[in-house]
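Researcher: Re-running this chain for the archive, since the previous output was lost when a drive failed. Same request as before.
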Amino acid sequence: MARDAREFGVYARTGGWAFGLKVARSVRPGGQSAAETPKVSAKEFGELAGCSAERVMRYYKAWDRAADDGLVPHFEELAPGQEVELPDADVWLTYYVPRSSATSARGTAITAAAEAEGIRPTKALEVAENPTALRAAILADPSTAQAARYALLDRLKEDPALQTELARDIARTDDLKKAVAGEARAADRIEYVRKVAEEGQVRTPAGQTIDAPAALRMEAERHLSLIDELDDAEEAGEWAAEAYDTVRTLVAETVEADPELRVQERRTKFYSSLQKATKVFEELTLDDAADFGDIYEDDMVQRLEELQQAITTCLTALRRASSTD
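Model: Regenerated structure tokens:
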């Protein structure tokens, strides 16, 4: 019991260093023959320990890296059974890589990313080797799902293939497609209000751009500040809709209150409608007149006659207005 307690205490203080020392003082460095040292190979040591040579070499390499940094003696300085002062347990994980995948290209990339995030590579490698566990954590824990979302957003910036795959997944999922459409609509409305507040200009319902009155701009700034103060978890859709509707109403009132602006708005709206109607009619196929018999319907003629009458009425009104001027 006393021996167990002492060994437990050593491990509690030093962690993996205690086992790293056993490997370091018993396994001969690479390139040395059995005749040059009383130490054994990693394979022999593993057989004696009842584990793989690969596992032994992970401890071997960890000790080697620490020795290069001056934390522990080099292998050549150690003999079987020799005791040395060991570093703290927490430092061990800086040098020990528990999985051989860390040496692969994928493992190297994960290790570099982990170091950039300020975490131990061993943690990241463990997660990467168990995607099922990662999936379970994301499904069960909102904070893990949030972290995964942030990571995916960062990854999307540099991964066009992932962008395409995610866009395809969204397009094939009705709920996600509706959610994206809703967020896009909210973003457009917020951008509309932001331009009014920051640039001092606004588009009228007919499409003309006018300078926003001071009161309108202040109201846009007020709504925008409320939206900017929302937490990431809060939905901006309702706030965006309220801000957009308020600004649009004030724009309409501004136009209505200015006689000259009101006339210009009507003129702009008329031109816009005229251009749309012209474009639609121009797109009708009239080249194949000989084939009209195949598509003829009485309703077509009736609709065209009604359109002709409406155009005649509009022309008469415009000519009358012109002669009055």
